[in-house]
Description:
By secondary structure, the protein is of the alpha+beta class.
Amino acid sequence: MIPILVRERYPQVANVANTNQLVAQRLTELGIRYSRGRKAVIDALTNADGPRSAAELHRDLAEAVPLSSLYRTLAVLTDADVVTMHYGSRGITRYELSEWLAGHHHHLVCLSCGTVDDITPPPALEADLESVVISLTVAGRFSPKGHSLEIEGLCSECA
Ligand SMILES: [Zn+2]
Ligand SMILES: [Zn+2]
């Protein structure tokens, strides 16, 4: 029997403080200042239940981070590998915490409203996905280093 997909928000991150600590550590190693604006973006992504576009983040961060510096902040955080870009439907670029912070997960992409939600399969199902990835790549002598499953459909709001 296939277990039901469990939807969890960043299971490997205990809380916002923990994420902030890890991000601060990484940026310090790279000689990058963990400014108030950068912290505001990390907090917003930690509290999000899926990848967010710059426009979506700007809606939450209007006061804290002006749009002009939001793009630069996202570029800095992406270069530092604390944030990863997600290329969703309709060519919209979204941002999320990198998997070393957020935990390994997959995405549900709504084709109607464009919302992207994270899903974390239970370990047994994730192991099945892993073996599918190996089966798909072994013939091409390709060495998989990771994978991400994008499931397209309609969210509960749009269905
Ligand atoms: Zn939707
Ligand atoms: Zn996976």
